[in-house]
Amino acid sequence: MLHTVYSNSYEILRAYLMHSIGANNSQSALKPIRIISGSRLINNELMLSIAKEKGICAGIDFWTINNWFRNYLGYGLSEGGQSQAFIWQLWELLDDDFIQSDERLRKHFEHREKVMDRDLLRYELAKNVATVFEKYIHYRFDWVFDWTFPKETSGTVETLKEYTQKQGSYELKESNFPHLSWQKRLWEEIGKKESMTLRRTLNMFGDSNQLEKKVGSEPQELHFFVPSNVSPLMLPVLKSLADSERHDVYAYLLNPCQNYWFGSNDHSQSKVSDYLRKNAASTRATINRFNQFATEEKFNQNLPIDILTKSSLQRLGISTFSEIDRVDLAPNDDALLHDFQRSILLDNTEELPTEIDAKDRSIRFIKSPTAAREVENVVNVIHALFNDPSLPDLKADDILVVTPDIETVAPAIEATFST
């Protein structure tokens, strides 16, 4: 069974996780609980938090989402264009007969053979194809399976087709994809090579029985904490876990906006707006893929709300929307930072203040003639905060410094802190 909880606060999601770990008394003490997060940094932070809360962090198996899914992708696919085995297998298939059979490939080689050896050209093409084919496998496995195994049916493919239809998929036509013909034939050749590891991996995903056996090796309790890069190919795995009676699966999803679809209403043309739109689309996709198999019941109905008001959260207001599976920080204390958070959460610009209080210290905007001077000003502000007697409990992790371009400022940061 799959349970989900949404919040605009990392701390709230962590509190839910801490409460839910080992909540199922039927979990064997000899079998680990698996936590799968978006990055190693998150895993390290969770490990320290659990040890601080429980005195020890034992019996928990930490993974990143990419490393965990690599067990299902198998040898070669998880590295895509970086997998030499996958590249050389494609290189072997892209022989002279295959190249000469397609006009686009033939012209590509005719133009470039003047400056590069033919075998090197084949390798370069195989490397690029490996990168593209990895995307196909993740995002349109239904196409890949139909091309590779045209005479076979698959429950996995039906699951993915149903998902893509809900998202408004488009018809696959060669007029829209000029390279479709030779790429499709290349997948057909892969299907004929029984020795290819790629073929066996595709077959495993296509065969629901094989996939269920693989999923059966997972521990009873799994926690997906703030996952990222959740490709559609994970849907069959999530479905198998959600349908399993022996697995308890929890997903903790970070979403700054109360609006489920988290669509960006900003259509202006700027780097910031473009980033926000892409981030909104990525967040929406991750939430939607987990929500495919989420249960309708409330998440952790017996969860004591007071666990969310301890330590650093005790001064912040808690607002609960709909059921308990969505709990957000929405303090209404006139602090500029909280005004911004509430505006994003409610998708309402009217929550933003018309004037900024000069005494407000929740957000500081620092601008100077040079990057070095900006960093020096940041250091001065941080020193002033720690020397302020009205902030005796201030800790380093209570302060966040952000910049639009960290690579540009990095040399100034290193130079300032090294002196």
Spatial shape: globular
- Kindly report the oligomeric state of this protein: single chain
The radius of gyration over CA amounts to: 26 Å
Number of helices: 17
Q: Sheet with the most strands?
A: 5 strands, parallel
- Largest sheet strand order: 1-5-4-2-3
Overall pLDDT, averaged?
Answer: 76
Distance between the termini: 55 Å
Helix content: 40-55%
Helix-strand makeup class: alpha/beta
SSE pattern: EHEHEHHHHHHHHHHEHEHEEHHH
Count of β-strands: 7
User: In percent, how much strand structure appears in the residues?
Assistant: 5-15%
Taking pLDDT < 50 over at least 5 consecutive residues as the criterion, the unreliable ranges are 295-324
What's the gist of this structure?
By secondary structure, the protein is of the alpha/beta class. 48% of the residues lie in helices and 8% in strands. α12 (208-216) crosses α13 (235-243).
Can you walk through the features of this model?
With 419 residues, this protein is of the alpha/beta class. The protein has helices at residues 10-20, 40-54, 65-73, 84-93, 96-100, 103-112, 118-139, 141-148, 155-166, 180-192, 197-206, 208-216, 235-243, 271-291, 336-346, 371-386, 406-417, and strands at residues 2-7, 33-37, 60-64, 221-225, 248-254, 318-320, 327-329. It has a five-stranded parallel beta sheet, sandwiched between helices. The chain has a two-stranded antiparallel sheet with strand order 6-7. Helix 7 (118-139) packs across helix 8 and helix 12 (208-216) crosses helix 13 (235-243). The protein is globular. The termini are far apart. Residues 295-324 have low confidence and may be disordered.
